[in-house]
Design goal:
mainly alpha; two-stranded parallel sheet; disordered N terminus
Length: 280
């Protein structure tokens, strides 16, 4: 190994493995706001705070900030991983399996929550945020190389979401014309359209983030990642606060966000039960 080669390897390795402290910290903030929101939901559901309104006003914006932050950072993180893998494995490497299996894993965790929520009988979780992140990880792969296209798609998905939210129905779609032609009636449970943003009129979802418009927020993150973190470097230098409190704690939360998401609600309920706040 020549001296030049050693210097090149020494310079490349840290750049391909470094984590941006501000991304993990912001994800950690979203973890905290998520836990606070779900704590308020638990207290409302069990009648401790029966008059709190979670679906409009302050708490609605609180929830939108939390989920919007998570989804934007999903897009940002994908662009960083994509460029680093390209740099490490070469421009012609097939990276799709990495994103596909990652997306499938997250979607599978979402299905586990679907079953848990159904068994608990507290509502519906047909297409929650984990379902969306899993699908988005797969669908966004062909778009990870682009910048302004993703910004335009975010606008398009946002407008489509405003348009499609007016469509509701009474749970079952019946197509008599098709039935008469084929010889039997066609019935479709409207919940199958929930991933696209079309729901029954009465749809008691406890976690609902359809592809339209929320996939657009992930693409907004892809745009931001390709703009602000181009070439695996920040567009603007930030202070190196990653080793300072409270950022160290926020980064810890951000690095373990998926695990925390999966276990935080049972832990909250256990805490409330042990404190005698709720009785299950």
């Amino acid at each position: 190994m020549t001296a030049t080669t050693a210097v090149v390897q020494e310079n490349v390795k840290p750049r391909t493995s470094i984590r941006f402290w501000e991304i993990d910290s912001l994800r950690g903030v979203a973890i905290i706001t998520m836990i606070v929101y779900h704590l308020m939901w638990d207290l409302w559901y069990w009648g401790v705070f029966p008059n709190v309104v979670l679906w409009e006003g302050f708490w609605l914006y609180w929830q939108r900030f939390t989920c919007g932050t998570f989804l934007t950072l999903v897009g940002v993180s994908m662009t960083i991983v994509y460029r680093r893998e390209r740099e490490r494995r070469g421009p012609d490497a097939n990276l799709f399996p990495k994103f596909f299996w990652r997306g499938l894993k997250v979607f599978g965790l979402g299905l586990i929550l679907t079953v848990v929520v159904a068994v608990a009988g507290v509502g519906l979780d047909d297409f929650g945020i984990l379902h969306l992140i899993g699908i988005s990880t797969i669908l966004a792969y062909p778009l990870l190389r682009y910048k302004w296209l993703n910004l335009g798609l975010w606008v398009l998905f946002s407008l489509a979401g405003k348009w499609i939210e007016q469509f509701h129905f009474d749970g079952i779609w019946y197509f008599p014309q098709v039935g008469n032609w084929m010889g039997w009636p066609i019935w479709i449970d409207g919940r199958w359209f929930a991933p696209l943003g079309i729901t029954p009129t009465h749809y008691p979802a406890v976690d609902y983030f359809p592809i339209i418009p929320w996939f657009g927020v992930v693409l907004l993150g892809v745009w931001f990642g390709n703009w602000f973190y181009a070439n695996n470097r920040r567009l603007v230098d930030l202070p190196e606060w990653g080793g300072l409190y409270p950022f160290t704690g926020l980064q810890f939360l951000g690095r373990h966000s998926l695990l925390i998401y999966m276990i935080h609600q049972p832990l909250l309920l256990m805490m409330l039960y042990l404190l005698g706040v709720v009785k299950m």
